[in-house]
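Supplementary Methods S3. Input chains for the assembly prediction are listed below.
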Amino acid sequence: MVTIHIDGTSYQVDEQQNLLEAILSLGLDLPYFCWHPAMGSVGACRQCAIKIYKDENDTQGKITMACMEPAKEGTYLSLNDAEAKEMRSHVIQWLMTNHPHDCPICDEGGECHLQDMTVMAGHAYRRHRYNKRTYRNQYLGPFINHEMNRCIQCYRCVRYYRDYAGGDDLDAFAAHNHVYFGRHEDGVLQNEFSGNLVEVCPTGVFTDKTLKSHYTRKWDLTTAPSICHHCSMGCNIIAGERYGSLRRIYARYNGKVNGYFICDRGRFGYEFVNSDKRIQQPMLRKERNADPEPTDKQTILRHIAERIQNNDRVIGIGSPIASLESNFALQQLVGENRFYGGISNSEDRLVKTVINILRQGPARTPSLKEIENADAILVLGEDLTNTAPMMALSLRQAVRNIQKKIAQKLNIPYWQDAAVREAAQEEYSPCYIATPAGTKLDEVARKSMRLAPVDIARLGFAVAHRISNDAPGVDNLSKELASLAAEIGESLKGAEHPLIVTGTSCRNENLLHASANIAAALKNAGAQPSISFTMHDANSMGLAMMNAGTLAQAKHEVQEGNADTVIILENDLYKRIDEDAATEFLDQCQHLIVLDYLHNKTTSKAEAVLPVSAFSETFGTLVNQEGRAQRFFEVHIPAEPVQAGWQWLKDLSTAAGKNAMSDWQNFHDFTRHLSNAMPQFKDIEAISPPPGYRVADQRIPRQSHRYSGRTAMHAHHNVHEKKTPQDKDSAFAFSMEGYRGQPPPSMIPLFWSPGWNSAQSINKYQIEVGGGLHGGDPGKRLIEPQEKADSPYFKNIPEPFEPGENRWLTLPGYHIFGSESLSMHTPGVAERAPGPYLSINDHDAAQLNIKDGADATYVVADRPYTLAVKINASLPRGVVELPAGLPGLPTAILPAWGKFSEASE
Amino acid sequence: MENVLTKNIRPDQRPVSLKEYEEAGGYQAARDAVKKKTPKEVQEEVKKSNLKGRGGAGFPTGVKWGFVPLGDDAPRPKYLVANADEMEPGTFKDRVLLEGDPHLLIEGMIISAFAIDAEVSYIFLRWAYKKAEAAIEKALAEAYEAGYLGKNIFGSGYNLDMFLHTSVGRYMCGEETGLLNALEGKRATPRAKPPFPQTSGLFGKPTIVNNVETLCSVPSIIAKGADWYRKLSATEDGGTKLYGVSGRVNKPGVWELPMGTTMREIIEEHAGGMRNGLRFKGALPGGASTDFLVNEHMDIPMDYANVSNAGSRLGTGTLIVLDDQTCPVGFVLNLERFFARESCGWCTPCRDGLPWVERILESIEQGDGRNEDLDLLNMHTKYLGPGLTFCALAPGAMEPLQSALKYFAEDFERHIKEKRCPWRH
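Predicted structure tokens for the full assembly:
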């Protein structure tokens, strides 16, 4: 820490920061545009002008850009100096010469950093009396709207898109006051993180096109903190609603998890909540073959109560996308031993293996933020951009760690972004990626290898052996892989923060074992490794931690006649197991009761369907792949009789005369009972304050103090203002009244601070800019490794992959847009998804005489698929890739051997 | 005075061949430096000569070289770049050297590259200099053929490659960091300093960017010594200087003269004085981005310190003369139009301030000026000043404007008052 003097007051600041960061971290205001806490300084906009003095006695001073000046001991500076203020107001004046001043029709209005900075810098009177320049806007795809006339040329968009997110189809064109930010031609922005442009752009050039289709001002949204449900990373989001529909998703800053950003699936995949496929009424099938008919809450409860009352043949099937509380409520309803997990056996086994590895622990699982500190990385089997997008974004930052050292050597502070990138060029920390097919991250990898999953595992085992001789070695390893293993081993061993990333998407247990061995070997060699496992769903980890039975066991119970009534919670089994197996199982269930929010194949088989809330309509707790339990809150109340899964299950229990949950009054009671009932969840109650929590006797309002239309929005039904709904489940209020200061970090419904209406107000919620939130970043880690010196090595090393004669190992190929079914209800996401295809190596294709783009018939798991062939030269020979999770493509449990049918050969 | 820079230049400006160049003693200095001296010794000699950068900034060349890390630990490769992107309006001095004596530049570059122990060098040439391009291409081929470039040059064990890069023609490429970005294939935006190119330059490696005239001065310093070179000058700053004159004089041109020759001598003797019936009103002493000098400055020696004391900069040393029958507002408008167009668009004051200045001047010139326009122009001259913008382009653009507003205030006021340009009929 160093002492600096600002307008006569002395402050302690971090000398690693530049003056702008130091000033903002102190809670003072200084306008800026081109600087971004995640992207550092480039000194382009000249907005953060301050006066710096040589010493105490200097009265002259010199105007300097705060963002380009390190915080040095004994700096004397002024924010209030008249010349500095005038400079700041002139910068706005210049920026405004061409800005269209179209705030009333601009989607950014009300959360526009340019508006805020204009007010802050004090420029109010237009003296420029000439015409403005105009631009032609571009079509940038289904997610992002482009309005270049508003541009103030801060260069943040290209710096974010290209330098931070690794995109290459957005650039700066032309020169002088006609610089243009866009694509080389109209077209869909290809980067998977393009949505962050909406928040990175300080004004309305890049705005959310999905929001535009049902536009609402920020101040008119009802918002609450939420957790993204579209993969296992658990990114923190803010969801906003108006008139009963979900309008948009914004990134919610969490210094330990997603930081400032989220991926496009997380940002734009929310529209399923508003889908016309939502189940809005309970549906009841009076006889087995009759059509289901809508019914009311009492009827359906009575009907199901009859089925489960005094019936010991009821089982429950939980879900890896439902909350802990809903899963727990189901378990309470059916009994601990009659609760099953609802995922395929192979996945169940993998997830439980992960948990065992993490618990026994050669290594700790890092948060996303910690992943950014890794200085040597090995990725085994995961196409992260598609299976865990935000981890891919974190790895893109991690590989730059070596650049910190290069910069340090040249005395360049790391925040001086352009200079660091110039000095370091394309020098990256070692990152090795072994996957079946090429991945987008390969471009930052030192080496990337294309191998079948067992060979990836063998490489991993060999790396472990190379690091520590105690780890079992691999026989018959090719020379090439052996030398690669040596290189990777040396690189991980020599690193300060070595990281191994793997996951369940290859569905190969050997990979998990190999990763564990590497971590254990590193630990034995004195290094401090971390190990990160990606998973399939938002609560895969949480569900697995509940130690539920497997789907196969559930099936067995039904087949044996031990179960006749099956309650399925928010889980389309057709996405979990082989299509025929799902049908067979569901047909065997005498009474099938399904709770879900979207109609799907499983609900279509049900005797009774209960309409449950989507994530934005209820509360819950999810455990992400790091083992971090995080809470999401109800944003808006669904139309009756839709209600939370846990609420339905409690109502069913009560209707059936059971006492298990009868005195649980609110959501918090579910959480509390769960944390009491299962020691692995003991910390989850403390994630957020209880419903009785108040600040100065007030609740936390979900609505901004500018929320408009409250008295008018329902006037066409009734001129009397509706009573404000009471929230018994949390300390939030469905109201604009309440505590206006900063709420506890787990309960931030929107980022706002006086004078800071945009997402840039996050500065005010952080201990220091870019750092943790005041009060601690939300979420509780549930899994820490045991403090044992040595963990046993896995010894079951697989045989090398042998391409079959006329048979192909079929592997799932993942797609950020397409492999996750909820987000596919957003038309834009569906538009970005690939069509059904089958991928095969070019040599194999030649041998089979299959042409790229031609249809081929391929049989796997006894099911023929006729699909267009995409030749993918990166695939190893003998491997076929089928897209995972695409709607309309029947699920097969992969990996499996398949063959091309005669017709296509 | 003995000519250092132009001694080989023929009246018809046909380029000097390698043979002719060597017959005049060429490449001996490079041979001696590379074979008999250490890089440090070359640097010391140039430091002693007090050679200052001829691109306009006037930074001592030897001192600049001294910031480059030497020795085995130094990052590699290191680069030397000749800034031949002569795009300063009114400046055509490097062109004479490039077209007429390309081997002088190559020899200067060999010695300079050796002085910083660089292994790669580039000539960054203005797109429009087609004649120079042909001359340099031929000279480079000759030098490679003779073993003066490439591996083990002059049999010394020193390796140096030299490449010609013809740029696309932007004023920003003359700014040394903008030039480096352009050379890397990036947008020609400037870089923040520090880090200076000497430590992190081309492709992030130690790099020296020197002006053509600077580099061409080096062989004589090495051949004849720093003391000899210093004595060529009329003032403190060492050596000779290419001075040029454009505008309505009798004999516009460029001449090699002792550093510190007066403006009067340059205009009246060498440029043959003002054309008939015209009177000298003022001059930009070193290209478009320098402040006007007027009659009272006629007798000051044109060197770095004296021109600076007179409120301007020596810049490139090529005068643009304003006569009494040319409208100063139109004159400055023409310059500001150039600067506004050539702004790279990186920083706000330059990108959005210069076009505003241009339009105000246009209004005034067209008789649509308002009194408050002068306040706005003055505001820009202050807030587009050094340190407030990202690089020196906008502050340079303000130099002719601020001095015109000072020396020709009445002319601006007349435009506004009479709602017309008094020079137009």
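The interface with chain B takes residues 42-47, 49, 62-64, 68, 86-87, 90-91, 94-95, 97-98, 127-128, 130, 152-153, 155, 172, 174-179, 410-412, 416, 418-419, 422-425 of chain A (CB under 8 Å). Chain A is about 25% helix and 15% strand.
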